[in-house]
Amino acid sequence: MIVTIQPSTVHGKIMAPASKSSMQRACAAALLKKGKSIIYNYGISNDDKAALSIIEYFGATIIKREDRIEIDSSNFNQLPLGIEGIHCGESGLSIRMFAPIVALNKNEITINGTGSLATRPMNFFDEIFPQLNIKIKSNNGKLPLIVKGPLQPKNIEIDGSLSSQFLTGLLMAYAASNANNVSIKVTNLKSKPYIDLTLKVMNDFGMNVPVNNNYQEFIFTKSETENKKSEVNYMVESDWSGGAFLLVAGAIAGNIIVKGLDTHSTQADKKIIEALKDCKANILINEKEIHISNSTLKAFEFDATDCPDLFPPLVALASYCNGTSLIKGVSRLAHKESNRGLTLQQEFAKFGVEIILENDVMKVNGGNGLKGTIVHSHHDHRIAMACAVAALKANKETIIEEADAVNKSYPNFYEHLQQLGVIVKKK
What we know:
alpha/beta; UDP-n-acetylglucosamine1-carboxyvinyl-transferase, Chain; 2 domains; 5-stranded mixed β-sheet; 4-stranded mixed β-sheet; about 30% helix
């Protein structure tokens, strides 16, 4: 799909989308709960659909209502009969979270994915799974994976520098396997707030939550409350990752109110508020409602090591800030849907914005105006959204190729821009 964005002023109110980080974790927890769960404000992104298809493969029944999804996972103990295995689409969280959960099963199951997920490194499983008595075959550290459990929890030590999502899967699988008096030690853990979200979801679904020893060790002991909840009602949080693009749109091109974002959330990407304040955006924060409008913006410094998904909206913001903004954490970008550091540098150069990559720091020279151009999403949802937001105050229209990449996380993104007054054309 090709989308054309005309320079526009944004105005009005909009609800931030559902968090796929929250939704996918809720799907996994609902499966492991072995009972009934009702999920409100459920997500509709491709990643969310992948998570739902995975738990359905393992026997969960899913009924979609207008305002909720009802999940019954009472049959999770039944071994899946299908031989095709599970498919994670392009969801990095699904592959990393569900692989250990799949390994609870004694059947040999294939795990696959598409697009950029097929090229992402999965060596972690080759190294860790044999320690847990799991047989694994990979394609030289890439997909597809063929795993055969059942997982047997043991004391292990893992490297958390690549992604916290590997740890999320292990924590859930250990809890589901009745782990007792065992621990997972972690070195170099990144994105700690996402682990906070995992532990919160586990607690909300009545799972056995390990003791968190300063993010360096997670200790499992027998819990009397494990899976005792007869029915779980869970509200999926609104998404700070998607909401960040709306907030940046307001900061550079208008006057809007973004609803639904919880400032007390454990989501890492709520740190976008810090960057907006630092660059002197006009922002007023109320309970689950944020009012933001355009102003003269100044360069800022920001550490995105624990929230690398903020790089794309931060680059769009920095492009309109007077001076050179510094964003730390570039090393976290290599294994996303695209190599986002290089992709942002390449695509924003088309707008006339200079981006310099120096070791772990990105320097964005902003405030010189943007020129409308033709850009490409690189099949990366966040690149497509960053380009669309950056286009709002360009000197002429911007054309985004492969713009439907937004379906991965925020299918309604262009419609939401239109609701805020942006002139959007699709073909």
